[in-house]
Structure formats: C-alpha cells, structure tokens
Design brief:
This protein is about 45% helix and about 30% strand. The protein is an alpha/beta fold and about 400 residues long. The chain has a domain of about 170 residues.
Length: about 400
C-alpha cells in the first residue's frame, strides 16, 4: 500500500516534467525563439531600445526596435522597427513600421502596422490596419470591426470572433467561432463546439469547416465559394501541433504573470531567493534534490494516519506550488546574467530579467531528450534556494528572539 501511494505521488513529478514530442518542438518555439534572438543579439547590432518597470508609456518617435516589459504597457507613438511587449495590460497604437509581438493578460494592438502582428494572452484584440499577417492565440480572440488585415489571419483560441475585413485567408482553431466580417480568401475552421456565420458576414472564397454540429448560417450571409462541412473536428497533425504551440504560449504567459506578482508583492523574498540561486547554484541543487526525493515519501507516510491525511494534502498542494515557482527564480538569474553581458548598467529590471529568462528556458525545455532534464535541474536549484532562504530567515529570527 505504501509503495502504491508513493508511486502515485512520484508520478506527479513525472507528469510535471513530461517531454514534448519532436513534431511539436518547431511549432512551439518559433515565436519565442525569434523574441530570444532579438533580445540576445547585442544592442549595437540591432539598435535595440529596452524599457522596463515604470517605463511603460511610450509616445515619442523611435528609430529602432523596442522591448516593453511592465504591469501596464501603452504605446501610441511612431516606431521604425519591431515592438516586443510583455505585461498584464498591453495597448499598442500609433504607427509601427515593423512587427508587433506581444503577450499579456489583456492585449490590444491597433493603429497602423506595416508588417505582421502576433498577439497572445487571455483576452486579445486586433484593431487598426495591418499590412501583413495576423496571428492570435489565447482564450478570447477578437478581430474588431475596425480592423483591416491585408493578408492572412490565423487564430487559436477558445472563442474566436471575427468582425473586421480580411483580404487573405482565415484559419481558425477554436471551441466557438463567430464570423460577422468580410473575408476575401478561403475560410478554414476547426471548431470543437459551434460555428456561427452572422447576417453581415461575407466570405468571397471557400468555406471549409469541421465541427460536431452544422454551422448556424444566418439569412443574408454571403458565401461565394464552396461550403464543405466535416462532422467531426479533426485532431492531430498541424491542428494538434498548433494547439500545442498555443498551450506553450499560455503556460509561458501564466508563468510570467505569476512572476510579475512575486516581483510586485514579494520583492524582498524574491531577491533573497534569487541571490541564493546566483551565489550557490550547486548547494541549491543538492538541497532541491533532497526535497524532490524525500517529500513524496513523507507525504505517502502521512497518508496512513487520520490526522496526517489533510496535512499531507495541504503539503502536497504547497509542494506543487513551490515546484511551479522554482523555475521563476532561475529565470530571473539567467535574465540578469544576459542583461549584464549586454549592458554596463548595474541596475537591472527584474521584470525584463524574468521575461528574458523565461523565453530562454521555455526554448531549452522544448529540446527533445535533454529538455526535461534541464527543466528538472532548474526546478531543483529553485527548490533548494527556497529552502536555504527559509532556513536562513528562521535562524535569524531565532537569534533575534534569543
């Protein structure tokens, strides 16, 4: 019985560090790799401008690439270069003579964009004029009525709402899809629940969709090309890979948002753990390895007592939370190192360090065969650093009391 329960608890660790297949690796890494290359290339080569922490509002004219990382990010100026933005609430407007790559909880991109727009988050909205392609990934994705996309649109979300004008083709993978805008090209939809074509919709190409139920097409809706319905939504292949890519983005955004919360509300503790990771990675790894092995065994033993059952469940919850948080401290230290190599300034933005570190770790974790091992090592280092920091704090409190 003890062996069985121990196996169940250890299996939690196995699920957390499970590998991602090769077929999904490329899809999941393209956007993050591009962001990482922009960040890691020396500023002199790119003319890169970085704004972090309180520098979240930009309205001036900029003639190089721009990275924005803050709680609230707003841009309504003019830029001749790309924008990379990460935060909680992001609004990008104005004139962008380049690409927009943004990830946050709520993200809105408008104005005039001369190249492509890629947005990821919980609630994402595309607005304004986009002269190239548009990609949206999140829970609620919306192409607003005033949005005009000159080329193709690709959406992966739970709910996809298309109200604007698309001159290219539209590809959607979602639970629910609502279309009321104009699409000049073909429309390809893979929906798990429903497809609604409203009265104002105009599709000038083919309408090909897969869904468990037939699409609700309102009277007055115009579909010029062939309409083809496949009853069951297909799984696997490119669709499965694209959903895997979306999952990776959502997990990345979630980790970044949680890291921001730690920076805002627990900065002294976060800095203490970060310093331990930076100064004692080897010792932290040893302590983390002990936690990784011992904790599941102790929790299994507690299951044999009446009082121990609720205690073990609470401890298990705490263990999972710490397991998840551990990599964030390693990401910050990694980001600090990278910024230190690119900048001579001693002052480092922790939000930007977190962003850079998470991008790099996310890409490394996706490497077949070794990614899971590197993930495990980074988690153990973070867990050990948390334990060392906690032990030091308890020891200092004891000395003060005595």
């Amino acid at each position: 019985m003890l062996q069985l329960r121990s196996c169940r608890l250890v299996s939690i660790n196995a699920m957390i560090i499970s590998k991602v297949s090769k077929s999904h690796f490329v899809y999941c890494s393209i956007l993050l790799l591009g962001m990482a290359l922009l960040i890691l290339t020396p500023r002199a080569a790119l003319g890169l401008t970085i704004r972090g922490d309180n520098e979240s509002y930009v309205s001036e004219k900029i003639d190089d690439d721009l990275i924005l990382s803050s709680t609230d990010v707003k841009f309504d100026g003019e830029i001749h270069g790309d924008i990379i933005a990460a935060g909680w609430d992001i609004v990008i407007d104005g004139i962008v003579d380049g690409n927009i790559n943004a990830a946050g909880y709520t993200v809105k991109a408008g104005g005039t964009v001369y190249r492509s727009v890629r947005l990821a988050g919980y609630k994402i909205t595309a607005d304004g004029q986009i002269l190239n392609n548009l990609m949206l990934a999140g829970a609620i994705a919306r192409v607003s009525p005033t949005c005009e996309v000159k080329r193709d649109v690709n959406i992966s979300s739970e709910v996809a709402i298309v109200n604007g004008i698309i001159f290219g083709k539209l590809v959607v993978n979602a639970d629910k899809v609502i279309i009321s805008g104009t699409i000049d090209g073909d429309v390809h939809i893979n929906a798990k629940k429903s497809v609604v074509i409203e009265r104002s919709a105009e599709i000038n190409g083919r309408f090909i969709y897969s869904c468990p139920v037939k699409a609700e097409i309102a009277d007055g809706a115009q579909i010029e090309g062939e309409t083809k319905w496949t009853k069951e939504a297909k799984s696997g292949g490119e669709s499965s890979a694209f959903f895997s890519f979306t999952k990776t983005l959502v997990l990345f955004i979630g980790a970044y948002i949680i890291g921001l919360i730690l920076i805002w509300f627990c900065k002294p503790s976060l800095c203490s753990v970060r310093d331990v990771v930076a100064d004692q990675p080897g010792r932290s790894f040893v302590y983390g390895l002990v936690i990784f092995i011992v904790v599941p065994i102790v929790l299994a033993l507690l299951m044999f007592t009446v009082i121990g059952i609720p205690l073990s469940l609470l401890s298990l919850l705490l263990y999972i939370i710490l397991f998840y948080l551990a990599k964030l401290f390693v990401a910050i230290v990694l980001g600090d190192k990278i910024i230190g190599m690119l900048s001579q300034s001693k002052a480092k933005s922790q939000t930007l360090s977190l962003l850079i570190g998470l991008i790099i770790l996310t890409i490394i974790y996706k490497i077949p065969f070794i990614g899971w091992a590197i993930y495990l090592i980074s988690v153990m280092i973070g867990l050990g650093a948390i334990l060392i920091t906690y032990s030091r704090r308890r020891r200092n409190q004891t000395e003060i009391i005595s």
